Amino acid sequence: MIVVVCLNPALDITHRVTTVNWGGVNRPAAVHARPGGKGVNVARTLQALGADPLLTGLAGGVTGAGIEAALGRLGVPTAFIPIGAETRRTFTVVDGEGTVTAFNEAGPEVSEREFTEFRGQYGEALAGASAVVLSGSLPPGLAAGTYAALIETATARGVPVVLDTHGEALLRGAAAGPAIVKPNLEELANLTGRRLSTPDGPDLTAVTAAADQLRASGARAVVASLGSAGLLATTGDGRWLARPAAVAGNPTGAGDAVVAALAHGLVLGRPWDERLRHAAALGAATVAAPVAGEFSDADYAGALSATALHRDEVG
After folding, report:
1. Where are the domains of the chain?
2. In terms of CATH, what superfamily is 2-8+39-83+109-311?
3. Catalytically active residues, by annotation
4. How far is CA 132 from the centre of its chain?
């Protein structure tokens, strides 16, 4: 079982329009409403991969109840702790040129009592866990060291952790010794305070140095997602760059697919080269899908065969 922690789930609403009239009325050609939040996307992707996820976290109000019900219909096992405040929503607008604009609410305030109840449930779930994924932002009321504390609890029981978050929560979490951390280019740049890109794309030498720095803080491996440029990994076994073929579509949820593939590969014992090929390919397949957290087997297989992998060609 892979325990996926989503402390700040959301109802993701996507509007597709030909063009956006920001000062007037827009009538979407299509509207998708799905359970969302990074951890939810990870759990849905793991379910589609045939893994055995358990999605846990915090959910409240009408929105939270709706998310739980929708996940139940999708067959995703959940164990959310109920909270008093309303679970957040996110809104994404995709225009005819593929431009994606997102509006993400911060999330509900979480009390100390509610989080203490979650910690108890989390500890029980670890007894049957082969890995843990900690994914997404922390809701208001939870300290930046929250993920670090959850990592310490899991590693003390011999359960490896994959961490995907940002800012101080990422920095503190990495220092707690997770098996893998997965920042994107912007998150890694913000963490190091350095420019990691050029007009032509990511500066691979700078990205490698930043990833090495984050790994030196305590993480056993760092996998940086670089958008269409692929994945750059620095691990105890070496460095890799995985480049998928170019794919047009909606990148929302692609990073979550990468996290799911990394966790799945970790549990399956795949070597790093195969783990990264699958992660890059699954991310590309998710870009091609219309809704975050979904992919087609055909797109995944095609992207897997088209993904190029290079070792020790960066840094």
Report:
1. 2-8+39-83+109-311
2. Ribokinase (3.40.1190.20)
3. 256
4. 12
